[in-house]
Amino acid sequence: MNKTSRRRFRWQWLVVLPLSALAFGSVSAATCEGLAGLKLPDTTITAAQSVAPGAFAPPTGSPAPYKELPAFCRVAGVIKPTNDSEIKFEVWMPSANWNGKFHGVGNGGFAGSISYTGLAGALARGYATASTDTGHSGGDASWALGHSEKIADYGYRAIHEMTEKAKLVIKAFYGDGPKRSYFASCSNGGRQALMEAQRYPNDYDGVIAGAPANAFSQILTGFAWNMQLLLNDPASYIPAKKLKAIETAVLAACDARDGVTDGVLDDPTKCGFDPAVLLCKGAETDECLTLALERWVEQGVAPEAVIATKRQGATPEAPALRTRPLCPYPQVARFKGSGSTDEAANFSCVMEGPSDKKRK
Ligand SMILES: [Ca+2]
Question: What predicted TM-score, i.e. pTM, was given to this entire model?
Answer without folding.
Answer: 0.68
